[in-house]
Design a protein that fits this description.
Elements lengths: L3 H8 L6 H6 L3 E6 L11 E5 L2 E7 L5 E5 L13 E2 L4 E2 L6 E2 L5 E3 L17 E2 L1 E4 L2 E5 L13 H4 L5 E8 L3 H9 L4 H5 L4 H7 L1 H4 L10 H8 L4 E7 L2 E9 L5 E9 L3 E3 L9 E8 L5 E8 L7 H5 L7
Antiparallel strand pairs: 1-11, 2-3, 3-4, 4-9, 5-6, 6-7, 7-8, 10-11, 12-18, 13-14, 14-15, 15-16, 16-17, 17-18
The structure holds FE2/S2 (inorganic) cluster (FES).
The site of FE2/S2 (inorganic) cluster (FES) has 9 residues, from loops.
């Protein structure tokens, strides 16, 4: 069990906290690309690690992530107009571009160039793997985008979605790499699902709907041996289960710094599943979930079946 002070350190993600500053050294998903579907479409309010921000796609298709509140009198820019490469504040008309520059100040005399003195907080943005990523850390520490395999593939080979979770991001990460709960949470207690698929009897994988020995081994051995192997990008968590022969069935999950995980997969060629855990506040998070297959496009059925809960 964690001590209370350790838990506090891990889960506080606001600006100026230890973990909050660490997370800000990495690119962070803040929306799905499809949530800003068109040029000059409606802006979106977002909260990332306690910061209230605004995301918008401008007339060129470039996405900006800026402070949600106007630096003039604090009006909410979500009420503003997204037009001609900028968000125009609904109160006095100041307009900001995706880099946070004030590009128009219609209430001031042009010869004063007052707009050149004004900036709004803005963060660098990239689109990568169907997601919109922001970098919220120091400019001189900006890393590369994470080389998640699914983002390196053609769009046809992946499917990306997201889900809300009412717990802190660390609890969510923990659930994703904790293989021991699979025997209970996903096989024993989903009674309605079990009745439909007869999971316990036929050992059907709840994700792939395919009956396999792997599901039988998970069901029959609720005490996996856990082995953790650190590596330069994170660690692997392996859970070994008895198979009734001399062999051990190892389910191996990946944790990748600072908040990505890959679920164990069963067989070569099967679809892969991963998740990225983004703190909204200190007590809830968005989980970006993705399925991909390095060898072929996903089918429509596979896209629809992409799970919102993986372990
Ligand atoms: S409050 Fe935004 S321009 Fe005045």
């Amino acid at each position: 069990m964690l001590r209370a002070e350790d838990n506090k350190f891990l889960t506080e993600a606001g600006s100026g906290t230890g973990m909050g500053e660490l997370l800000r050294r990495f690119w962070i998903p803040v929306l799905l690309s499809e949530e800003l579907p068109e040029l000059d479409s409606d802006p979106k309010k977002i909260v990332v690690m306690g910061e209230e921000l605004l995301a918008f796609r401008d007339s060129r298709g470039v996405v900006g992530v800026i402070d949600q509140y106007c630096p003039h009198r604090g009006a909410n820019l979500w009420l503003g107009r997204n037009e001609e490469c900028g968000i125009r504040c609904v109160y006095h008309g100041w307009k900001f571009d995706t880099d946070g520059r004030c590009v128009d100040m219609p209430t001031s005399y042009p010869d004063l160039n007052a707009k050149d003195l004004i900036r709004i907080k803005s963060y660098p943005v990239r689109e990568w793997g169907e997601m919109i990523w922001a970098y919220m850390g120091p400019a001189d520490q900006m890393p590369e985008l994470p080389a998640l395999e699914m983002a390196l593939l053609p769009a046809s080979h992946r499917f990306v979605t997201k889900k809300w979770q009412d717990c802190n991001w660390v609890q969510a990460v923990e659930g994703s790499i904790d293989t021991a709960h699979f025997t209970f949470a996903h096989l024993s207690f989903e009674k309605e699902e079990n009745e439909i698929l007869d999971i316990k009897k036929h050992f059907v994988n709840p994700l792939t709907r395919v009956a396999t020995d792997h599901m039988r081994w998970i069901a029959e051995d609720p005490r996996p041996v856990i082995k953790i192997n650190p590596h330069e990008a994170g660690l692997t968590v392996a859970g070994g289960r008895l198979t009734g022969s001399d062999n051990i069935y190892w389910r191996i999950a990946q944790f990748l710094m600072p908040f990505h995980s890959y679920a164990p997969s069963s067989m070569p060629g099967e679809n892969m599943f991963g998740q990225t855990f983004v703190p909204v506040t200190d007590t809830n998070c968005w989980i970006y979930t993705y399925a991909w297959n390095p060898h072929r496009p996903l089918t429509d059925a596979e896209r629809e079946a992409t799970p919102t809960a993986m372990a």
